[in-house]
Amino acid sequence: MARYAGLLGREVHAKIVFMIPLTLTYARLEALRSNLPEGLKVEEKYVTEFHEILSLLEKASGADLTMFRVPGEELKRRITSANPGAGTVGYSDSKFCERSFLMMKVQGVLGFFTLELSSPKPAMGFVPPPKER
Fold first, then answer.
1. What is the tens place of the pLDDT at every residue in 21-36?
2. C-alpha distances in angstroms, 25 versus 11, 86, 109?
3. What is the pTM of this model?
4. Were 12 and a residue from 8, 70, 109, 110 both cysteine, which residue would form a disulfide, CB within 3.0 to 4.6 Å?
5. Does 101 fall in a domain?
């Protein structure tokens, strides 16, 4: 990519260098959204993957995406067995999150970047007045 910088111009090259990691990570987020298993709950590994994607998006974009992270208290162990007579309950080793909660966070990030990337950016620096004819 660097060898083409002279051909593309600095501004275009900088935009491409910025957009490639952002676009790849955005595609990864879309793939996560499209492939979340059906059901009421998803395993913690999907939340971990989502948090890794958020970290990459933060690095690529410079945006603070903390509000989209799934709080630890949303991850809970499932009850796997219960013995009411003995008063004991068994729990799963792995944790789970409500699928709808994770989807809400994923769709929030996708919505944020859709709006952010589609909104026009104000011009930087001096903008001369339009020429009169």
1. 788 888 999 999 999 9
2. 22, 50, 12
3. 0.73
4. 8
5. yes
- Answer yes or no: is 131 within a domain: no
SS3 at position 90: strand
Question: CA torsion sign, 61 to 64 to 65 to 69?
Answer: positive
**Residue 98 structural domain:** 2-117
Residue 7 lies in a domain: yes
Q: Please name the amino acid found at residue 131.
A: K
Q: Is residue 66 part of a domain?
A: yes
Dihedrals phi, psi of 132, to nearest 5 degrees: -85, 145
Domain count, the chain: 1
Tens digits of residue pLDDT in 41-56:
999 999 999 999 999 9
pLDDT band at 117 (very low <50, low <70, confident <90, very high): low
Q: Given the structure tokens 């162990």, which residue do they identify?
A: 77
Instruction: Of 97, 119, 108, 99, give the one whose Cα is nearest residue 54.
Output: 108
User: Per residue, what are the HEC states of 56-85?
Assistant: HHHHHHCCCCHHHCCCHHHCEEEEEEEECC
> Cα–Cα distance between 33 and 48 in angstroms, integer?
13
